[in-house]
Structure formats: C-alpha cells, structure tokens
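Reopening this one. Same input as before:
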Amino acid sequence: MGNQPPQKKRTQKELSLLDDVRSKKIKEETLAEKLRDYIEQQDMTAALEQVTSQGAARPRQDVFISPLNEAAGMAPELHHPNFVLRLHKSALTPP
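Same output, byte for byte:
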C-alpha cells in the first residue's frame, strides 16, 4: 500500500461524469468509445509534433528552380522556420 501513487482529486466535471455512468445516463460502452477516440486524438497530436520537430532538426538543402523569365525582378523573400521562398515579381502579378 505504501507504493501506490497519491490519487489526484477529481474535478466536479469528472465527478458528474462518474455519477452519470453510475445512474446509467451514459452507457459504459459509450464512455469507453469516447475515451478511445480521445486517446487516439492525443496519440496523433503527439506523433505530428514529433515528426515536425524531427523534420526541423534535419540539415537543410537548397533547392533552386530556374525561372522562365530571367529578366524579371525578385519579390521580397518569405521566411518560415523550415524554408525561405523567393519568387519573381511576375509570379505575384495576374497575367
């Protein structure tokens, strides 16, 4: 009994949810399904954060795409933590 972690105090919302389950207002299967959905959502969020942080840590590689019109001037650079985008002014004006 001495090795058990201390129990956290339940919030009013948690107590209300438990009362609803006990009084059969919410079925146990419904609660289990919602819990599975919540856990899956949290897993996907954590996986996305991990992939994003790993991708940003990779060495960057410059990529150059040659323009159709070399004479066109350059528009201001657009900076992002993962890339810098440089466009020709002609790319930003309608044809």
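So the earlier flakiness isn't reproducible anymore. For the record, The CA atoms of residues 23 and 95 lie 67 Å apart.
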